[in-house]
Amino acid sequence: MDASAGFDPWSPRFAADPYPGLARLREAGRVHWFAPTRQWLVPHHADVRALLRDRRLGRTYLHRFTHEEFGRTPPPADHAPFHTLNDNGLLDLEPPDHTRIRRLVSQAFTPRTVQDLTPTIERLAHDLVAALVADGGGDLIARVAEPLPVTVIAEMLGIPASDRPLLRPWSADICGMYELNPGEGAARRAVRACEEFSAYLRELIAARRTRPGTDLVSALIAAHDQGERLTEQEMVSTCALLLNAGHEAVVGSIGNAWWALLRNPGQLAALRADPALLPRAVEELLRYDTPLHLFERWVLEDIEIAGTRIPRGHEVALLLGAANHDPARFTDPARLDLTRTDNPHLGFGAGIHYCIGAPLARAELLAVHGALLRQAPALRLLREPLRKPGFVIRGLRELLVAC
């Protein structure tokens, strides 16, 4: 019997609660062939963690092989705007380009940057929650979870307030391409968003070259190391990645977290009684229902998992949600435990592609959760939330609450 038969990432029922199916997949073995996407599914924490660090795998193969050498068909020519934007960002580059760009971006994206932004993040969270409470409640996703991270990224990039409504639709359309087997409609929307967002960012970069400011775009222009600088395309791709990866994941994290807390009133009551638990709670909520469920890697050299040989040219799907619920690593993983101390979750990845924006995401989550706990002590659910259809990027479309 096919052990992956219960893995159905396109099923609304599976997307609503994938964890029982992922548990069955974990129990059935360490690696499974999944014919619909032609990928090897890897569900165990130890394997996922190791493979995220294994340099025999890569986010891309084009630094070592052509499409033909790797046995792959090049993407359609009309998808080029998406691949130009996506393939020049940190997420999809490998050394030496990844090393060079991450070093340069790190000069502009420092812990001090996040520290300096924290008062702004906390003010934004306070104001958004205050407006929600003043109205007696509403959609927590639209009113708090979505505007906070997009406003923070826009502030960092120096994007004028009048242009910020453009960012969320661009981000959502581009991220549609990260789901498994996206259709041609999703591709067309992503291509159009990439063209529009890239053109916008090029104009912004040109303006900052003439009139530098204190924003991240100006810092990226100024970043250099031993004569190396970011190309314009690398800057465009970096800015787009900061929006797409940081924004989508934080929105998902906030919605997933509050849906989890509202389903676990004892844990929510304990957190309200002891706000000092909040930093630990942020990590547990990221583990319990991670917003990013799958990272893909290309096999650049033959590997073996539990006696199964996976040859060069194949692709593995590292199942972060399954890994974060692995009982071999987490005690009672299906239970939300905000006091959990041993919590090496993989919500931010691992290895050289570990999320460069993790400190910013944590600052945003601490601010939002703290504001909701302080300002909305009677927050309650009005009805079952609406979930987005995707599996790879997991989150809610709507979460109606009363305050």
Tell me what you see in this structure.
With 403 residues, this protein is an alpha+beta fold. The protein has a single domain (12-402), classed as Cytochrome p450 (Orthogonal Bundle), CATH 1.10.630. The chain is built from 16 helices and 14 strands. The strands form five sheets. It has a five-stranded mixed β-sheet with strand order 1-2-10-7-3. Strands 4-14-11 form a three-stranded antiparallel β-sheet. The protein has a two-stranded antiparallel sheet with strand order 5-6. Strand 12 (386-387) and strand 13 (396-398) form a beta hairpin. Helix 4 (80-87) packs across helix 10 (184-210) and helix 9 (167-175) packs across helix 10 (184-210). It starts with 11 loop residues before the first helix and ends with a strand.
What is the fold's blueprint, element by element?
Blueprint: H1 12-16, H2 19-28, E1 32-34, E2 39-42, H3 45-53, E3 57-58, H4 80-87, H5 97-108, H6 111-134, E4 137-139, H7 140-145, H8 147-157, H9 167-175, H10 184-210, H11 216-222, E5 224-225, E6 228-229, H12 232-263, H13 265-273, H14 278-288, E7 294-299, E8 303-305, E9 308-310, E10 315-319, H15 320-323, H16 358-375, E11 380-381, E12 386-387, E13 396-398, E14 400-402
Parallel strand pairs: 2-10
Antiparallel strand pairs: 1-2, 3-7, 4-14, 5-6, 7-10, 8-9, 11-14, 12-13
Helix pairs in contact: 4-10, 4-12, 6-8, 6-16, 8-12, 9-10, 9-12, 10-12, 12-14, 12-16
Short summary of the structure?
By secondary structure, the chain is of the alpha+beta class.
